[in-house]
Amino acid sequence: MASVQDIKRRIRSVRNTRKITRAMELVAAAKLRRATARIQAMRPYADTMNELVAGVGRAASSVRGLPLLQQREQVGTVLLVPLTGDRGLAGAFNAQVLRRSFALERELQSEGRTVRWLAVGKKGRSTLSFRRRALDGEYTGFTDQPAYADAQAIAHRVAELFTEGEVDQVVLVYNHFVSALTQRVTEQIVLPISADILETDEAERRDDILRGDFIFEPEPEEILARLLPVYVETQIYRALLESTASEQGARMTAMRNASKNAGELIDGLTLQMNRARQAEITQEILEVVAGAEALT
Questions:
Q1: Nearest CA-CA partner of 264 in 15, 57, 50
Q2: Other C-beta atoms lying within 10 Å of the C-beta of residue 84
Q3: Which of 101, 138, 229, 284 could form a disulfide with 82 if both were Cys (CB 3.0 to 4.6 A apart)?
Q4: Rounded to 5 degrees, what are φ and ψ at 10?
């Protein structure tokens, strides 16, 4: 059995660890509040962008010449873009994104397609490098607080690979934020852009008629060609914000569980220390009694 002093040292160590996990939980909670606020602020902009693209698309006479809308007859090469964090200690946040990405890779390869990779986040980059996957790009150092410029850099790279014909499809894999306790792994095809965004329902068509016709300057096709890259940037930025909120929620939950486990461990060690102390006292009493009996 461990001595009382050894158990006391273990209790002090666990208490110090619990202080760290509690502090990390509070920091993650503060970052989570900021991240959710950024998502809420982003949603009106994203919705307006969708409406704008749809409105201009309906006015365009033809969109066949726009490269970001081109659906390839044969999808031979797919670019996977897993969105991970730069740090760990967030439960299964990073692991579940990478697990889904590798499962998708196996599925695509079974269909005879080639898979290429673009890493976002240090955890994803290190795992892909360890597994000897060649990377078409890596973007790190901003996952705690992504800026729109970060989404632009990623969007420009994937659009370049797509328009030059190096890849036929671009898929984001990231954690969609549901709550602090729940993050749902999501696969989103960002390129080619689905033609569905240019369609509208009958109610919207009636609203357009009531508002009247618009005169576009320059032509709708040219406006749409400028809007579509911004649309891709918006989709990637939204995914980055969702991933950031998911990471902070997962980290807050993981640190809360760690603090709870530390408390339970302290209770167990305290009980063990009391038993060890009682055993020492009992042993000392027996030694005193035995000594007294020896003198009589």
A1: 15
A2: 31
A3: 101
A4: -65, -40
- Contact assessment for residue 176 and residue 183, using Cβ atoms and an 8 Å cutoff: yes
The rounded distance, in Å, linking the Cα atoms of 151 and 167 is 19
Distance of CA 119 to the CA centre of its chain: 12
* Burial of 293 (C-beta count, 10 Å sphere; 0-12/13-18/19+): exposed
Side-chain half-sphere exposure of 174, counting CA atoms within 13 A: 30
- Cβ within 8 Å of residue 110, ≥6 positions away: none
DSSP state of 136: E
Instruction: Count other Cβ atoms within 10 Å, centred on residue 172.
Output: 25
> Angle, nearest 10°, between helix axes 148-163 and 220-295?
120
For 160-215, the pLDDT digits (tens) are 999 888 999 999 999 998 888 888 999 999 988 877 776 654 435 444 443 445 66
Question: What is the C-alpha to C-alpha distance for residues 48 and 50, in angstroms, rounded to an integer?
Answer: 5
117 vs 65: which has the higher pLDDT = 117
Mind listing the pLDDT tens digit for each residue in 13-50?
Answer: 888 989 999 999 899 999 999 998 988 888 888 888 87
Phi, then psi, of 190 in degrees rounded to 5: -100, -25
| Cα gap 97→95, rounded to integer Å | 6
Q: Are 118 and 79 in contact (CB under 8 A)?
A: yes
111 class by beta-carbon count within 10 Å (0-12 exposed, 13-18 middle, 19+ buried) = exposed
Q: Return d(Cα 46, Cα 234) in angstroms, integer.
A: 7
Neighbours of 263 (CB within 10 A): 13
